[in-house]
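Let's see one such:

===
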Amino acid sequence: MKILVLNCGSSSIKYQLFSMTDRVVIAKGGVEKLGMKGSFLKHVRQDGQVVVFEGEILDHKIGVEYILGILTSEKHGCLKSLEELDAVGHRVVHGGELFNSSVLLTDDVLAEVTKCIDIAPLHNPPNLKGIKAMEELIPGIPQVGVFDTAFHQTMEPKAYMYGIPYPLYKKYGIRRYGFHGTSHRYVTKRACELLGVDYNTQKIISCHLGNGASVAAIKNGKSIDTSMGFTPVEGLVMGTRSGDLDVGVVLYIMEKEEIGIKSANTLFNKHAGMLGVTGISSDMREIEMAKDKGDERAALALEMYDYKVKKYIGSYIAAMGGLDILIMTGGIGENADTTREGVLSDLDFLGISLDHQKNKGFRKEGVISTPESKVKVIVVPTDEELMIALDTEQIVTSGNKL
């Protein structure tokens, strides 16, 4: 079975083509600067050869056409025809309260996803455009939606409710939804597989640390809490997002700076976080370099980042009544040993003992805690695309829902 995985953003489309027989990626790439001047498609073949095509890629349908064209290209492709493609799996950011698992994308499902646009105005519209484009270009091909929010639908009301008037929750669905669910689900299952333990009996904290970042608490195979909330802006200090913030601060800044809702939304989503504090960059590597050169704001931002992750880890240990496994994943979690050091140092009293020597320069899959550590600390590179492909395969072969 061959499955194409699509991740459609507002100005980009990322794709991976899987051969599910051996679970390998036989082609991948992405369309960048969609609808803008200088748009292009970057295609990577299984042998590592990279091909770049420039063109006027004005919308998602044209972008998907480019992708299907390159996949079936005689010179650069890996499919003889589109008939070799068995199904398409889509990353869909928001499934609201209705979807607690991946599903076959029917007209009824798409109608419900469309209703979620109000609470995910930046993400769900491009997701839906990709689905619609594929529907028009390959009519009848099975398509599956894998929701970022679905994994966290096991949270109890005490974890997902906000302290707002209850009628507002009922009227607008204002509650904690959480995101990065596909990543948290993949790495927690993979960690248990590597450690040879039963996923359904473990207390796990998963730290997905990238430009967007979240921490999740998984107890006995179910997400019980997560740091991102109604939107992905809540929680940790991130690349450009503020993370947890006193509502009063938002109102105060809006009043003093005389800005409206749209400007405030841009401020706290695009100009805050590590970029806002440092004034340098949202890239941790550049911030680390600035710190090494003596930049005090860069040093402060890194301390803030580590401190916030550490606080969430402590709170989730309390919420679960203990911890068996702590996972580091995402671009920062997988590669930034200094961040792991800052987050996990001095936690021996909680049973977390980092092997400082092993952690240094560690950039692969494996355990980085000491043999004596009561909690296994493990680095697991995330693979959301494989998770989407696996869900798609299972749904297409066995029914319309996991």
